[in-house]
Amino acid sequence: MADVFGMAIKDYQSGHYTEDIKTYSSLDEEDVIPIPYLFRGFKEMPVIEQKALKLAKGKVLDIGAGAGSHALYLQNKGFEVTALDNSEGCVDVCKERGLTSVVLNTILDYSEERYDTLLLLMNGIGLAGKLNNLSPFLQHLASLLQPNGQVLLDSSDIIYMFEQDEDGGYWIPNDGSYYGEVSFEMEYKGVKSAPFDWVYVDFNTLQNACDSNGFNCELVISGEHYDYLAKLTLKK
Question: In CATH terms, is domain 4-234 a member of 3.40.50.150?
Fold first, then answer.
């Protein structure tokens, strides 16, 4: 499978930035991921990400680290942080940018250590892919946590992307699937990724899933556009 994300990030890191990543989704929307944004410093990060980084404690695993910007910030603050990504290109760039602990793997295949903080930023919970994968995904996260550990994740309720009727209700396709499930493809310099599943989870749905999988789920802050930061801790 083409490492589209890794190719783009490596180009930017080596000074060959000429275009952004195009994304195509089952929501019929074509969009772009601006590559410079993936290299942002703390001041350029959204408030939700800044808050998550301020709440980080102890030994940290940055899941889906990308170009490593979150992990780098924490490492520079003195944290013991590991950047995890399943993209070879991303892992190479994380190392080039000075991260000392970088792992090439998918989160579901990773079980090496336990952490005080698991970071899932930029809708990292989307890695679960589908709503019915959320329970096993959360159970796996639990297995990576120290007893007093925490998961810090952000996501969005994408209900706003559906048409609203006059009484304020939303027209959601009744095909049996959860409305936050999206299929994506990415394209960079003419190279397309294989389609992959991604899920945006509204807070109530996340809370219910956490409750049935041994987590407390706290809403830390809401963003300006249906997005939020949640803190998950293991029930005693």
Answer: yes
* Contact in structure between 211 and 233 (CB atoms under 8 Å): no
> What distance in Å separates the CA atoms of residue 4 and residue 148, rounded to the nearest whole number?
37
The whole-model pTM stands at 0.92
* Residue pair 88/67 in contact by the 8 Å Cβ criterion: no
List the chain domain ranges.
4-234
Instruction: Note the pLDDT tens digit of each residue in 121-149.
Output: 999 999 999 999 999 999 999 999 999 99
Alpha helices in the chain (DSSP H): 4-13, 47-55, 69-76, 88-96, 134-143, 203-211
Look at residue 152 and give its three-state secondary structure. Answer: strand
- Whether the Cβ atoms of residue 230 and residue 219 lie closer than 8 Å to each other: yes
